Amino acid sequence: MITSLLASRNCIAVAVCMGFVLTAHGRTPGARAQPAPIPAENRADLTQPPARPSADSAEALARTLFAAIVADDPALAAEAFFPRPAFLQVKDIADPGRYYDQLYKRFFSDVHALHARLAGLPDVRFERFELAKRGGFVKVHEEGNRLPYWAARHNVLHYKSGDRALSFEVRVLITWGDRWYLIHLNEFH
Length: 189
Prior knowledge:
alpha+beta; 2 domains; five-stranded antiparallel β-sheet; 37% helix; globular
């Protein structure tokens, strides 16, 4: 009897601890993730494209991305990557979460590959970011989307190594609200 009482107390203690852990991470047993609020700039019922967001958030994104590449730590630029809750609402495809996970995994490998390209270069430093005009406003039902956004394709991040001016392409940025996010660092098939 004492053994079963101790076992039941241990089960209760474990259950209570799990409840605290899950709650601390924003999850409770049986709870579903709430969809992200849809910004006015991404509403499906827009009749005209909103103003194209300024390059300011793209410049900040590029600086964060470059620091992550130099450090060979993709997690440093995780905030620059398009948010998963928004992506799940934007994409009108089967299993958008699986596709997002592929894109995010590819982002990590692309950061590592670019770090390898920079390895051995002396004194690398960020110079500037060119937000491309190519891309335009992507409407509902284009590119498998249920929500619209602005896209900028073939952007260029400029940096220096010593006195050498260098650059690499940042393939595709898209917007959520009035902010630019990375979705493809390199070409993705």
